[in-house]
Design a protein that fits this description.
The protein is built from eight helices and 17 strands. It is an alpha/beta fold. It starts with a strand and ends with a helix.
């Protein structure tokens, strides 16, 4: 599989090059570029199956490169320092999204995904982007996972971490605080009913006034309601169908 590395930092290119050569013998690196313009020029000169692509570079974003490629079908693995663009990356049908410094095991997993993945051209991006408002990217210690917001039952503070609970009974521990998700999910129909709890309004089944007041959710869990939040919660429950 022929591949190129696109990153404006020489040390980052050297590190990734060494990892690919050591852990991914099926990958043949045929070139490197330090930005959007040089990568576009390189891709006119060489045919590749895979691009290892940084996002924030001196002359633009990695997404700019994909936008200017005519009907690109090249596989893309984003390699970047932050998870803030992960959802957008998956909307561009990225195979994976690796955080620097790259974990060799995650790199090998990303390459393995290529054998079992469907790839999209730019024509498919409009379909993928329709999910932007309804999806959320969660970063765990092991992976970046795209989840549908409607499938989140509630979020619970665990100190500097947040536990997400889903309608299928699964849960994920995220390395961010509940405060990080409060305003974001508040715009998506979630309500902060307690200092430690953020609840999906569509998952509320009932409000019990006894024992200090608590919510019963559709998954059977009970969530306490703070005194300060009781009026707001009671109003929400009264409007539920």
């Amino acid at each position: 599989m022929r591949a190129i590395i696109v990153d404006d930092m020489e040390l980052a290119r050297e590190s990734l090059r060494a990892d690919v050569q050591q852990y991914c013998p099926e990958i043949q690196l045929v070139g490197e570029a330090k930005g959007v313009v040089s990568a576009a020029k390189l891709l006119r000169e060489v045919a590749v199956d895979l691009i290892f692509l940084d996002i924030n570079m001196d002359d633009g974003e990695g997404f700019d490169l994909l936008d200017i490629l005519p009907d690109y079908k090249t596989k893309v693995i984003f390699v970047t320092a932050s998870d803030e663009h992960a959802l957008k990356a998956f909307q561009y049908a990225a195979i994976d999204y690796l955080l620097k410094p790259v974990d060799p095991e995650r790199l090998k997993q990303a390459i393995a995904k290529i054998k079992n993945s469907h790839f999209f051209s730019k024509d498919n991006q409009s379909v993928l982007k329709e999910g932007e408002r309804n999806n959320l990217v969660l970063s765990t210690s092991e992976e970046l996972r795209v989840v549908e917001i409607e499938n989140i039952v509630r979020c619970q503070s665990m100190g500097n971490y947040t536990q997400f609970f889903f309608t299928d009974g699964s849960k994920i521990l995220i390395t961010k605080t509940l405060k990080d998700y409060d305003s974001l999910l508040g715009e998506k129909g979630f309500v902060r009913v307690h200092q430690s709890h953020l609840v999906n309004q569509n998952q509320i089944k009932a409000y019990v006034k006894t024992e200090g007041g608590y919510l019963v959710l559709k998954d059977g869990s009970n969530v306490p309601v703070s005194v300060r939040k009781k009026p707001e919660v009671m109003k929400i429950v009264s409007q539920l169908k």
